[in-house]
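Sample intake sheet
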Amino acid sequence: MNATWRRALWSPPTRPLGFQDWVTWATLAVAIAAVGIPVHAAVHGLWVPAAFILGIAQGGSILLAGLSPWLGALVHVISLAGIALGSSPQLAPWPLSVISMIALSALLVLLGLHAEWRLQVLTWGAAMISVLAIAAVVTLQRSDTSAGNSLIVGAGVTALAALTGGIVGLLLRQVRTARHATELERERVAWAAERSRIAREMHDVVAHSMSLVHMRATSARFRLAGLDDEAAAEFDGIAEQARGALREMRGLLGVLREEGDVLTAPQPGLAALPALIEATRAAGTAIDADLEAIDPPPPPPVQLALYRVAQESLSNAVRHAPGADVSVALALVRGEIVLRVRNSRGDGFVAPADGGGHGLRGMMERMSSVSGSLAHGADETGAFTVEARVPYPAGTVA
């Protein structure tokens, strides 16, 4: 037996049986075995040991079909043929006894509810062909059999049972599919509502505050008398950064409201790192940058993740270690892109609340999303280092 047939025989049902299903089919299987053994032995002339073995196989195959439909169907057809061979042809009904008709009908209904219709049709066909072949051989040898009537009645009753089970099974599958689709739609609507709520909160709170920063920085040269050129340039830089942050915020809000997974606006990448470093230098932070050109560049998601790590690391350095010396290095090292941001303790060191927060967690999540890693920590001098690593897909062009 090849691997395909072995997998087919031991494959589970398409819809597993629940507790109530097991109770129902177990009760029916026990009843079929309990009634079939004495009836086949006493009424149909089946040898008692054979009646005992085949009766258990006939009833047990129904339960077996709940675990493996193909194996259960195979055992049932064999037991059905065995009962027909061992029973007396003169004792009607033969070759399909009433118990055999009931057992086969029950199996076909179970297959219709919990398995594929192809197996149901194949099982019915195999059962009918086997008993028809037995009846044909025996009838050729002796004419005193009632095989014809039994076969007609048995084929009709079991076919009706198979059709009923198949139709009910199809309806149940359609109901389950519709229920699943309804649950998915309900979850989608709830998620869309939550995204809209987050977008509203961000717009009302964060975007509004950033707009105020932009407005005040833009109007500072007109509102403040005697503002020198250096101070005016500082306010202009703040206004430009606020505008950039607002653009990104609007893109993010659009994603939240439209349920998109990616921003449609161009996202910053490794080429934007020099501008980020210059903007941080303009804020008064001394930065030593060593950025190696990565050619060909990695995919956009990788570039965005590395950019955000650098952005958050520089922001943390400015916030928690004002006056510190910062170094930023980007290099390709042994098949990995390595971004390292390091800052000294600084004169105005401010310890982060609770030892850190969402920034570090967000950086780790970003790197994990592109199959990368992030390490961070302080040394004995208080200098803090953030190191991001991501595999470099050779030959991939953004």
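Comment: The CA atoms of residues 184 and 388 lie 37 Å apart. The longest strand covers residues 325-333.
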